[in-house]
Amino acid sequence: MMTQPAPSHNFDSAGTELPAADRALVGESYDVLRAQLRDREAAMAASGSDGLIGVRSPVREGKGHWDYVKVSEHLILSLVDAVYDRDTWIVVPGDRLFKVRILISGTLLKRDGSTLIDGAGAYLAAYPGAAGDGYTAVGGQRLRLVVLHCDHALLTEELGLGVASIPDPLSRLFGDGPDNPVGANVRLGAEVLRAANDIIRTPAHYPRALRRAYIAARSHEIVLAVLKQLSVPDFVIPDGIKLTMRDISRIYEARDILSDAFVAPPSIERLARLVGLNQTKLKSAFKLVFGLTAYEFVRQCRMETAAELLLTSDRSIAEIAYGVGFEYPANFTHAYQRFYGQLPSDARLRR
């Protein structure tokens, strides 16, 4: 049975939905996105509102949505969390852009039906001319995808790179060669995975006024990591850890289990059995991908939930402590102070 995907991001300015007539055109159509985001930016300026400039496009046959966020004049970000009813072709027009697609879960297929990315992976595609292409999102699976739509001026104007230093295939965006699309799979190093995960979680960690700048910084980090791989072909994941795409998918599954069960999380031994990894790989890879140990991630989930409850509920501090998994309120108070630098009682006074 197909289930509604749980939202993995909640960009408040992306609550404005695209007109129904435009939804079939969007996918990865940069021109349509740029026009819609320009209108959204003008509306926000007229109303005096701030925050991220974004629009949302619900999927037409399935559940979930594509969120589109303007990061800069040369970069638009797509964040996809959807389940399509059936295999769905995503149109990608030729637009002289390059795109970095980071798949967190789901399967993408090439035009001929062969696998583009499965489970978790990254793909770089450059579109030097008017020729476009596309890919199929496999139906019945939860698709979580981050796409960076990058104008070639991102490289020269925002990042300050000289054209001669830009590696192939991105160098084709600046030449007079063939205009056919060209792409390559990108190794999912720690930088790319962590930056994509941080972008998805931005609303939970940054106030509205800082979100655009933070997303821009993390997006630039992804682009630079890709450039590094293109420039240094023998680039490897640090610490000698070897991860397959299946391993990475299982690491995300472990993260989701802990996120849902942070009040009473499974032991590392049980978590490893649940996702099909040995304990050593699970602990090392979790830290590599998310920048936190499994224990630190659970603590973060508890603290974030507690902070929200302190501000939005009338529960006592002791009730909140028990509710997020602490056996003793005094331990909760100590942990909260270490995490946030203030007592829970002080946080409540500020609401």
Strand residue percentage: 15-25%
Number of helices: 13
**Helix-strand pattern:** HHEEEEEEEEEEHEHHHHHHHHHH
How many β-strand runs? 11
Mean pLDDT: 81
Shape: globular
Q: CATH class of the largest domain, anyone?
A: Mainly Beta
User: In terms of per-residue confidence, which ranges show pLDDT below 50 for 5 or more consecutive residues?
Assistant: 1-8, 10-15, 17-26, 234-239
Q: Number of folding domains?
A: 3
Query: Fraction of residues in helices?
Result: 40-55%
Would you tell me the structural class of the helices and strands? Answer: alpha+beta
CATH 4th-level superfamily of the largest domain:
Jelly Rolls
Radius of gyration, CA atoms, in whole angstroms = 21 Å
How far apart are the termini?
A: 42 Å
CATH architecture of the largest domain: Sandwich
For the report, how would you describe the main beta sheet?
A: 7 strands, antiparallel
- Give, in spatial order, the strands making up the sheet with the most strands: 1-2-3-10-5-8-11
The CATH topology of the largest domain is what? Jelly Rolls
